[in-house]
């Protein structure tokens, strides 16, 4: 049994104040009220929770701070929040209402110095950089604006840069796999995990407990999933028992 504890992170993709879930970043369906859903995951044994305001950047607005505050009040586990975070003040506002980490994506690409400044001011442990990737030929390209824009940056090169700037963790989402339930993209998960010294969260494609086990075997420090948890296809406590039985160390 490994000594390192792996984490299970449900993700709330929030749009217009509701939790939604799509496939390949589109065709969104409703999955409930964020506060109720968060409360449930807190009780079910999730290790952390991720709250992503998925249209904030595209709609050029800030994350819904008051909703984050309501969610944070229900939680006794770490909360990561992302979407529309552009400045040090935005980060302060979210940390002030009870979130533990913030996740930046588009704004980190547009202004990489934000990572340096935020890590200096709040500590690397608070700063997650989300990297949304799509396989183009033999390369994994980095996309921003909710998957709408190709930056032409390569995933590993960008991941190494954000690590060097003080980011504490990477949330790696495969757009090709998102919502397909065909398993995580193990190739790029492994590439980043083996080349970086900071934790990598695998995201996009979870369909079964085996998919999550595989992500851990390929080097992920945490797995993030949405629909399989939201719609009760996988229960977190059952998942943790399964992982323990397969030699993956998780917190029960």
UniProtKB/TrEMBL annotation:
It comes from the Bacteria. InterPro entries: Aldolase_TIM, His_biosynth, HisF, IGPS_HisA/HisF, RibuloseP-bd_barrel. Pathway: Amino-acid biosynthesis; L-histidine biosynthesis; L-histidine from 5-phospho-alpha-D-ribose 1-diphosphate: step 5/9. The active site is at 13, 132. Keywords: Amino-acid biosynthesis, Cytoplasm, Histidine biosynthesis, Lyase. Its EC number is 4.3.2.10. GO terms for cellular component: cytoplasm. It catalyses: 5-[(5-phospho-1-deoxy-D-ribulos-1-ylimino)methylamino]-1-(5-phospho-beta-D-ribosyl)imidazole-4-carboxamide + L-glutamine = D-erythro-1-(imidazol-4-yl)glycerol 3-phosphate + 5-amino-1-(5-phospho-beta-D-ribosyl)imidazole-4-carboxamide + L-glutamate + H(+). It is an enzyme of class 4 (lyase). It is found in: Cytoplasm. Pfam families: His_biosynth. GO terms for molecular function: imidazoleglycerol-phosphate synthase activity; lyase activity. GO terms for biological process: L-histidine biosynthetic process. IGPS catalyzes the conversion of PRFAR and glutamine to IGP, AICAR and glutamate. The HisF subunit catalyzes the cyclization activity that produces IGP and AICAR from PRFAR using the ammonia provided by the HisH subunit. Heterodimer of HisH and HisF. Belongs to the HisA/HisF family. This is Imidazole glycerol phosphate synthase subunit HisF. The lineage of its organism: Bacteria, Pseudomonadati, Campylobacterota, Epsilonproteobacteria, Campylobacterales. The gene is hisF.
């Amino acid at each position: 049994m490994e000594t390192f504890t792996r984490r299970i992170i449900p993700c709330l993709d929030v749009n217009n104040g509701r939790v939604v879930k799509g496939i390949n970043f589109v065709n969104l369906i409703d999955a409930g009220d964020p506060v109720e859903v968060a409360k449930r995951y807190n009780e079910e044994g999730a290790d952390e929770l991720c709250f992503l305001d998925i249209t904030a950047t595209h709609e050029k607005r800030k994350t819904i701070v008051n909703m984050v505050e309501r969610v944070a009040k229900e939680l006794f586990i770490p909360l990561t929040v992302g979407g529309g975070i552009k400045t040090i003040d935005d980060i302060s506002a979210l940390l002030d209402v009870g979130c533990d980490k913030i996740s930046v994506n588009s704004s980190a690409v547009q202004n990489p110095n934000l990572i340096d400044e935020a890590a200096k001011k709040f500590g690397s442990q608070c700063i997650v950089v989300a990297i949304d990737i799509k396989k183009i030929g033999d390369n994994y390209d980095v996309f921003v604006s909710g998957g709408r824009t190709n930056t032409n940056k390569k995933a590993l090169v960008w991941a190494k840069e954000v690590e060097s700037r003080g980011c504490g963790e990477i949330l790696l989402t495969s757009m090709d796999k998102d919502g397909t339930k065909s398993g995580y993209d193990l190739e790029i998960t492994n590439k980043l995990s083996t080349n970086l010294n900071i934790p990598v969260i695998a995201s996009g494609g979870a369909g079964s407990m085996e998919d999550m086990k595989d992500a851990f075997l390929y080097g992920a420090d945490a797995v993030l999933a949405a629909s399989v948890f939201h719609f009760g296809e996988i229960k977190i406590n059952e998942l943790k028992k399964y992982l323990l039985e397969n030699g993956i160390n998780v917190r029960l």
